[in-house]
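Example with several molecule types.
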Amino acid sequence: MSLVVAEMKLSVRDKVGPLWGVAFPLILLIILGNVPTMRQPEEANGGLSTFEIYVPVLILFNLAMLALIALPTTLAGYRETGVLRRMQTTPVGPARVLGAQLVANLAIAVVAAAVFLTVARLGFGVHLPENPAGFAIGWLLVAGALIAIGLLVTALAPRRGVATAVGTVLYFPMMFFAGLWVPVTQMPPLLRDISQATPLGAGIQAFQQAYEGSLPSARPVLILLAYAVVCTAAAIRWFRWE
Amino acid sequence: MAAIIEVRNLHKRYRDTVAVEDVSLSVQAGEIFGILGPNGAGKSTTVECIAGIRAPDRGSITVTGIDPLRDRRAATERVGVQLQSGQLPERLQVAEALALYSSFYPEPADWRELMDSLGLAGKAKTRYGKLSGGQKQRLSIALALAGNPRVAILDELTTGLDPQARRDTWSLIENVRARGVTIVLVTHFMEEAERLCDRIALIDAGRVVTVDTPAGLTARAGVEQRFEFRPSAAFADELLTGLPEVSRVERRGDLVVVAGADGALSAVTTVLAQHGVAVRQLRVSQTSLEDAFVTITQSVAKEQS
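Resulting structure tokens for the full complex:
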């Protein structure tokens, strides 16, 4: 427990997670909410406004930033500077540091998602997901898949700098397929198909279904589970403590 | 006294290089045991195996009666380790690090007291990344002691410190031993080993060359006594070379340099006094551990070739 608290403090001091993962998407949310055309219901979006579509996208923005960039950078840095090695000589062991990092990042992500939804609801009158349980399931699945990918990056990257670079390179195309630049609903069919096979594309699909009132359908669930299982197994296979 | 650490026929190789060929040691409870040797001799690998964070290829190790590899939990509680390469997160503050580490142990030391005694109280709120080399080293020692260990392993503890910080660290280590902690000290500084250690194991090329007290090592090396002086009047060299204790006489300007066995000094001053020559500005150079180290490792190398 004290490790989790310490890791949270360190994440906050590190600023990558809080600034890029929380503050930046939150500011984006507020700016977008203040653009009148963003608030117009659009036929192409199935009657939703572009702003409403962006709320879950920004929740994914936050999760992906923490799992793909903040987490691998921190863990690979810990390995590089011998933090994990030092922990091997204590009764606690390095695995718990990894666990504490995960819990700390997840906690930050839960708070961020709650803040985004609240600001969108209270500030701009955006409806909450019709199916909160479905939304929570979708969020957990995306978190699982992204953390698994982040851990795989940590396992394979030889150094902290490489981990950051690989995480960032993965981040942008994945956010594209989540609809950060073009909403998924407005993508051409080929891109939409590709999108649904990516973790964030599958995630946004699950979120949309939750907004519409249903539980996530089998396809996004299976895709996200597959990413989580395969990447976790690969990460375990190649992970090094030093 | 019973041995608190027992290492038998330790062997460890990394791919093609043998780091430790064959090391056997036994460390007594309460002593400061030095492991001394040149870089790459296998010192760090040996202590990492003792700490249980590296698995030996062959050999057996017991620390406080347990196998440090198999009984991880008990070993980590009883053995505090300060590693050459182990660090802390850059942004963790000194007091936070100490509080965190003491929370890992069932019977931790009072970390505030540790912080004070290591002179870190003024740095309680300073981040690890902002500490000087000496401060990092002291924090690292404090963390090694956070769990109230029975054995502390300190690897290259004063490397990279300035002379003052090094001396401060030495007196610190003596205080730690005074609390009853057995200390294994890895070093390549002769002066450090000479000053701190009760016994020293000389390790070279993955083998224990010898284990002895610092004084024992110097005596065993049989290095000659050397002294130099300015005579008050001229005299013939034969006066001194004729003495059985003296092996060599050299003149450097008006300086006379004499080498010889124990007792050479008194023999020389006596014979000169008999001839009315006074010995002035006498300087005796003590055989250092460094000389002993070189002599012993070289004689072993000769035997082997």
